[in-house]
Structure prediction request, 124 residues.
Amino acid sequence: MRKSLIITVKEVGEVTVKEVSPFALYRALNATDKAGEMISLISDCVSLPDGKQLQDLWPSEIEQIVDAFVEVNSAFLGIADKLGLRGMLVGLSAIVTQNLPKLFAESYRQVMESMPGTTAGAAS
Prediction:
């Protein structure tokens, strides 16, 4: 049975954090677009209240979700550590962390371009 944990994040609401699928992580590790695949994996493991998206959250809010993710995935992380995969997971985490600002900026640009009467990145 897939483990999950519901946490309450101030200003966000109830967030459900679920156990990661080993196959989804394997797919992310072998993907050409590792950052994009990890974003997809995170989206599968984290359910935010309606109308909220990961890119809307502040670091202090994300930190609470990461803590819950580690708690829910303790068995998987323990197995990965025993198999010597910790370095690979840390490296993958670094790739995602480095690419998140770029991915969020790109999604913001796409939203702004789709809104009538706005220009993406225009200075006044």
Observations:
- The first strand starts at residue 4 and ends at 9.
